[in-house]
Amino acid sequence: MNTMTKRTLLTVTALFLLAVLAGCRGEEPAAPTTPAQPAAQPAAAVDPATAATIVGKVSFADGKPARPPIRMEADAACKAMHTTPQLSEEVVLNDNGTLRWATVYVKDGLAGKTFPPSSQMIHLDQKGCIYQPHVVGVVANQEIHIANSDQTTHNIHPVPKINREWNESQPPGAGALVKVFAREEMAIPVKCNIHPWMRSYVHVFSHPFFSVTGAEGTFEIKGLPPGDYTLAVWHEKYGTVEQKVTVAAKETKTVDFSVGPKAGGDD
Amino acid sequence: MAANTSPWLHRYAVLTAAATFCLLIAGALVTSHDAGLAVPDWPLSYGQLMPPMVGNIFWEHGHRMVATFVGLLTIGLAVWLARREPRRWVRRLGWAALGAVVLQGVLGGLTVLFLLPRPVSIAHASIAQLFFCFTVTLALVTGSGWLEERPRRAQSSSPSLRRLAALATAAVYVQLILGAAFRHQATGIIPHLLGAAVVTLMVFWAWRRVRREHADEPALRRPTNFAVGLLLVQLLLGGGAYWARVATASAPQPQLVMVALTVAHVAVGALVLASCLALTLQAYRRLAPAEPQPSLVSEEATS
């Protein structure tokens, strides 16, 4: 083998090794923003005499986002449940220019405080082959009751990065699944492997100070101890936007957010 | 050694290779539709042999049905070769193919039971292509064209066409693994793009060698022409599949254009691998080993 050929083969081999090594470094997707929480202290109940409230709305920053239609032909039972095509819930603009399914939460400022676990049950339903609601917030170890109101089998598959992953089928008429997520984690995607358009998100917090916007785009966070906080809003497409907030005892403070492609976010 | 393989055995081997190609497509459809966990149990599907084929269950269980068919074909091929094939290495290859398809079944089960761990999913995709290579080889070496005895052609160029073709085949196989790694989100696109450059270089190098020195040998000309033609199509499909993936990233479900282009890219990639493999096998069958290059060191100087 002549020198030129040896050099060529060595170059080719080096390129391939480079390709494989580049792959080995990997491109792990960035971990979702998770509120930083220090080690737990003994529980201290919030004094209702001083508890504050933060209210506000989440507006959409720019224009009118498209909502692509969902095709349900793959399951006749799903298609039969709707007379008009269902639309994607990734970006839902309310009539008043606000965003639905944005999650506002206290990201920083609760250091040293712990809160009793919530006994309230959170419901997630599969109805019309759509997860309802699209976004839920829970406190760690708070029970989520997952129901199937459809006449077709669903397969619930959350894909967390920190909590335990599971994948269970739920035929029509089956009892509710009762699940908990033990660790704090933002934006756990929940999908149905049978119906690929079905998606919801579960946020798991270590505290109860969060709120998901509805049809009016508003949020309310009650029972907050007075102090300095970082308030954040998360949206599945536009990422996270933060604001610093200071609330005094028994104050009701209004904080508005603007979210969209120009307002930007962490992601 | 001249073997006298039954033409029906050859046809059966071709059928097995063709069915394996269809199985590769079925597997690609599962991944593209994100249907890998649509059936959460294994080896049964929702506790049944035949579940309702709705939604993504159609793709996942359909894939299992095709895999079962290919498994049965492979059992038959291995047994038939064991009973009728005079060449020991071919008989062993039949059993190796059977071992590979059994391993594939186990890997498929593990991907479901352990919720699609990336290394297992990538191994499942990679072994699938290796198994396809086994079936293509068995189809080729049981054919009358392969069995025909002819004087071997000399080759003097360096590196030898045997080596070039083998390296091209290996490059394509590594590229398929890199593609699987990208599909299963273990890597970005860059390694797969670098691999495409290497594959293009190697395939064109082999094609140029065949055109220059062996254009009159159809056993070498045909697979190399196929490899180059398919490679050009593959490069276009790769660009299209990536564009479709980016363009439909916000869609609520996998879109037909993305699925079609991606599955076609997987399928043509397998055909490029098969073409390079056929060229390699034929190069070893039809060409004499490369002549040793004269030493630069004079024999008188060492005596």
Short summary:
The complex is a heterodimer of chains A (267) and B (303). With 267 residues, chain A is mostly beta strands.
What does this structure look like?
The complex is a heterodimer of chains A (267) and B (303). With 267 residues, chain A is mainly beta. Chain A has a single domain, classed as Cupredoxins -  blue copper proteins (Immunoglobulin-like), CATH 2.60.40. Chain A has helices at 3-25, 76-80; strands at residues 52-60, 92-93, 99-100, 103-108, 122-127, 130-132, 135-139, 144-148, 154-158, 168-170, 177-179, 185-192, 199-205, 210-212, 218-224, 227-235, 239-247, 252-254, 257-259. Chain A has a five-stranded mixed sheet, with no helix packed on it. In chain A, strands 1, 15, 18 and 19 form a four-stranded mixed sheet that branches. In chain A, strands 14-4-16-17 form a four-stranded antiparallel sheet, with no helix packed on it. The radius of gyration of chain A is 23 Å and the shape is globular. Chain A starts with a helix and ends in an 8-residue tail after the last strand. Chain B contains ten helices and no strands. Chain B is mainly alpha-helical. The radius of gyration of chain B is 21 Å and the shape is globular. The relative contact order of chain B is 0.12. Chain B folds into two domains: 1-147, Up-down Bundle (Four Helix Bundle (Hemerythrin (Met), subunit A)), CATH 1.20.120; 157-289. In chain B, α1 packs antiparallel against α2 (57-84), α2 (57-84) packs antiparallel against α3 (88-113) and α8 (218-247) runs antiparallel to α9. Chain B has helices spanning 7-32, 57-84, 88-113, 118-141, 144-147, 161-183, 190-213, 218-247, 256-286, 299-302. In chain B, 73% of the residues lie in helices and 0% in strands. The interface between A and B is large, with 43 and 41 residues.
